[in-house]
């Protein structure tokens, strides 16, 4: 946690959350902190709500702004959290992981069809006397698309 708040306030919040903290941070300090994390090869997610957070929100990998925050913070962020509930951050992370998983599954379904159907249509089995028309190879495309759509609709988070 990097905050402009004083040491005592920052320490209390950080202890309750069980996280490290940086107190008395200016906008430049926050920006420099983000840059140092990025130079270490770390991906950086930041939550901010004020004008002082805007420069850092603009350079992090994923910037989250709280909807009750300043307009410049909202404009600088990638995602806007509709409530001021810290648990929304965890929900967002779970949603991104679930979405990434679904994208990979759907890529496998879509590509899997192509890896099988295209070689068959191109005559892979012709030496064995089995010739499949390209039109017939295209028939499984519709079920493949339906499976991908149903799988995408099945996106759930805990």
TrEMBL record:
Q: InterPro entries attached here?
A: HAD-like_sf, HAD_sf, P_typ_ATPase
Main EC class the enzyme belongs to: translocase
Keyword rRNA processing carried by entry: no
Sorted UniProt keywords: Copper, Copper transport, Ion transport, Membrane, Translocase, Transmembrane, Transmembrane helix, Transport
Q: Which GO terms describe its biological process?
A: copper ion homeostasis
Q: What is its EC number?
A: 7.2.2.8
Annotated GO MF terms: ATP binding; ATP hydrolysis activity; copper ion binding; P-type divalent copper transporter activity; P-type monovalent copper transporter activity
Q: Which Pfam families match?
A: Hydrolase
Highest taxon in the source lineage = Bacteria
Show the catalytic activity.
Answer: Cu(+)(in) + ATP + H2O = Cu(+)(out) + ADP + phosphate + H(+)
GO CC annotation: membrane
- Which SUPFAM superfamilies did the record assign? HAD-like
- What are the TM regions of this chain, as residue ranges? 111-136
Q: Which NCBIfam families match?
A: ATPase_P-type (TIGR01494)
Identify this protein by name.
P-type Cu(+) transporter
């Amino acid at each position: 946690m990097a905050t402009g708040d004083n040491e005592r306030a920052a320490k209390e919040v950080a202890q309750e959350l069980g996280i490290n903290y940086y107190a008395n941070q200016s906008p430049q300090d926050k920006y420099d902190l983000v840059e140092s994390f990025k130079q270490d090869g770390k991906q950086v997610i930041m939550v901010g709500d004020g004008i002082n957070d805007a420069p850092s929100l603009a350079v992090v990998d994923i910037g989250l702004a709280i909807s009750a925050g300043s307009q410049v913070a909202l404009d600088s962020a990638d995602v806007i959290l509709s409530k001021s509930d810290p648990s929304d951050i965890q929900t967002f992370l779970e949603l991104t992981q679930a979405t990434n998983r679904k994208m990979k599954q759907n890529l496998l379904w879509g590509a899997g069809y192509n890896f099988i159907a295209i070689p068959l249509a191109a005559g892979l089995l012709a030496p064995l006397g089995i010739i499949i028309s390209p039109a017939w190879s295209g028939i499984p495309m519709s079920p493949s698309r339906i499976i991908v759509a149903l799988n995408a609709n099945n996106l759930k988070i805990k």
